[in-house]
Each structure stands twice: as structure tokens, then as C-alpha cells.
Input
Amino acid sequence: MGWANPKVVHDPNYNPAVQTEGLKILLALEPRWIASFNGLEFLPLKSSDISVEGSTIRVGPYARSIRDLEWLRSDTVRIRTTSRLRSQIDTITLYPGDHLPSTAGVRRRRRAFQIEIGDALRRYFGVRQIRRQMLYSDRLHGIGGAYPRFLIGRHAAIAVDPDEDSPVVNALMRSALLWTSMAPYPVTAVVPSGRHQCIAARLRAMPKAWQMVDWLQWDGTNVHPLQDCGESPETYIQPFEAYHARQTRTADDPPAAAHQERRLESNLIGQISKVLPNIDVRHVYPQVPSFAGEERNIIDLLTITTEGRLVVIEIKAGPDPELPFQALDYWIAVERHRKSGDFTRNGYFAGCLVNDLPALLVLVAPLLAYHKTSRQLTHLLPHDLPIMEIGINQTWQKGIKILRRQGIVS
Output
């Protein structure tokens, strides 16, 4: 939102009583507010519940001394305060109206889930108290701020709110596996019931990942061991005639002017023989198969070698820690449809004999865009998965150059 790291100027002549005159005027104009206390507690209030007198602000039941004040927007203010009894700085942010901005709303929802899942984990492990709990982004180790983490007894636990978007829910797996190398105790990961199909499908293909973490499931009230019923994310193959008609209708559109991946996809298709010399250039299909109801921020190409072996190509123009696992998702789907004969049945790869070998998996991204955790995660992929990582030049818009090929595809 542009104010994650506010700049507050501490003027020795700063006079809160003068600076708060604008706030008093706004409080008189806006009848309802939501007050955030340190980004953890959110309190809906009437303007009559908020008052400013000199350097003292009263917000609901709380009275604080104003240290400094910063306008985030014309109607949103952040106030750093202290109480009479403590020297600790408390940050109060006032939002106008009855609804929080999206970021603040997400923080409140995640905080509520943290409390709820923490109680469920405490009951599951049979302990009275949680030793420590965390809800922040650990960018150094590649763990996002959507995942509450706990130290409970001699267990380390990580979970995700079922109300998160699909990519966030699925990325719990990556965060849990990365946390195993840092947590002081064995790691437990809690997957939401009903939204576990993608992670379960990955775990079936990755026995090492299954063994590294104790996988649990949350049903909204309690947690219990994850039950793998063999379900996978739903994918479908559109008949080639309909697929071709759709591609033709969109061919004149600007090649994803706002998305680097789409531009890279277009360049890659045009120079596919340079990247993979043995590809049958007559058959290069973007986004086949399609994921039903899943949000994916990665570009998928499906093609075939001159010897008849399918090739899955995953493209990313910038760093994305999910690249290895999202590539695995697509490869699993392709393998399922290949074994069922769905591609040839629906008119793809006409004139080719698709052989009965696992599809090759190729990752393509600028060399510097491979995330620092990529190697650690790639080593967890199935040992018999034929995979190659290709690093290209940062200036690929002017022409693709291969800077590194890693892995064996055979």
C-alpha cells in the first residue's frame, strides 16, 4: 500500500497540539472509524469515541500521549503513542468508515486464524500453553507472512488459513519444508480440509517431503492426521478445435503488455529450437491442460520431441520460490492425461506417435531470476523425474541466449 516503511521526521520543535488540529477537523466530519492497535487489534468506533486534547488522544477505552503523527492519506493517520505507565511505543492507525483497507483486513483475518488454529494445536498436542507464536514474513528464509508458526511443547507447527487464495494455500508446503532446516523441533504442517488436494498430489509424488514433515488437516474445529484419498486438482483437456479457435481469436491481442511472462512466452515459442533443438515446432501448446478453479501465475507450454516424448516447459520472468512445485503440479497433470490418452483423443499432436515415457520437465527463467531456495526444493522432487533448468539472459527481449543448462533430460 506504499506505507509499510513510513518516514517519520522527529523535529525537536514538534508540537503535537498543533499537528492534531487537522485530525480534530476530520473526526468532526467522519462519523465512524476503525482503530488499529499495533496492527493486531482492530476496534470499530464512533467519532465520539475518539478525542484529542493537547498531546493526549483517547481511542475507545485507551488514553495515550502522542509522540508523533503521520498522514498516510488525506483521511488516514498513523499515530505513535506512549502510555503513562510504559515507555513502549504503541502505534494507533485510524481508518475512516466501517471497513478496513484490504491489507489491514487481511492482517486481522490472519491474526484471528492464528488464535483459532493455535488453540486447536494446543489441544492436539495435549499441552496447556504455546511457548512461542509468530506471524510475520521471513524473507531471508523464504517463508511468507501468511503462515502462523508455533512452538508447542517439543513441536514446531505451521499452518495456513483456508480463506487464503489457492497459491497461498499451496505454498504452505514450500514454507513447511524450508522451515525444517531452521526450526528447533520436528515440523508439523496443518493443511485446510477441502483445500488439500494440490499438496496431497505433490506429496504422493514426493515421498521424501512426506517424511520430512508431520502433515495434519484442520476441519475448522480440530486437527487430525492428513488423509490422502488420492484426490488431485481438477484439470481438463479442451478439444483441439475449440482450443485452436480460442487461440486464433486472441492472436491479435498485444502479447501480454502488462505481463513479462507472456512476452517471454512469445519470444520463447519463436525461438524454441534455440532453447530445445529436438522439439517438433509444429506442436507447441500454451496452457494445455487447464486447471479448473485454480489461480496460477506461471506460464505452461506443452510440446513434443521429434522422437515423440512429451515436454512440459515452465516459464518465469522473475524470481518465484514456487516455480519448482508449480512445475511439478503441471507435470503431474500432464502425466495423468498422457496415460489416459487424452491428448491424442482430443486432437493434439496430430501426425505424431506419443511414446509411453514420462514427460520431460524444463524450467526456463532468466539466470538471476532463479530463487535462492530453488535448488533446495528441486532436490525434493521425484528422483526419477527428468528435469532440466535453463537460465537465460536478462535482456531476453532482444533475443534469447542460453547462459546455463543444468540437469539431465533424457
Remarks:
- The CA atoms of residues 67 and 81 lie 5 Å apart.
- The domain at 235-407 is CATH 3.40.1350 (Trna Endonuclease; Chain: A, domain 1).
- The chain is about 30% helix and 30% strand.
- Residues 1-14, 252-258 have pLDDT under 50 and may be disordered.
